[in-house]
Amino acid sequence: MFCLILQACYFAIPLPVESASTFTVYDGKAGSDIIVSETVDYPLKALVFTSTNLKTLVSVLSEISFSLHDNATAYSLLISNNGTKVFLFPQVKSFKPFIPFIDNIIQQPWYGNT
Asked: To 5 degrees, how large is the angle CA 81–CA 83–CA 84?
């Protein structure tokens, strides 16, 4: 049985990962308004999703979360900057399998895209 647990915390001071350097994996130029980056020189690997289009960001992240859940992949989310920046920490050894998957999800015609 797969157990889904949700925990929420508020930190007045930003966590160190929020100021970590990132490398852009997907630049959002295809009309999705979402920029996907990967943390660099940080002990934990994370994908960082940034967008001012909150509807699209929520749609993409929920699809990714459902897919990770369906594949029994544990992950954590850190929501930052009033929801415009989300860190995804999947419990995997490599991000390489995620890149085509993320490209496919981001390029779908989500509600709210222009």
From this structure: 70
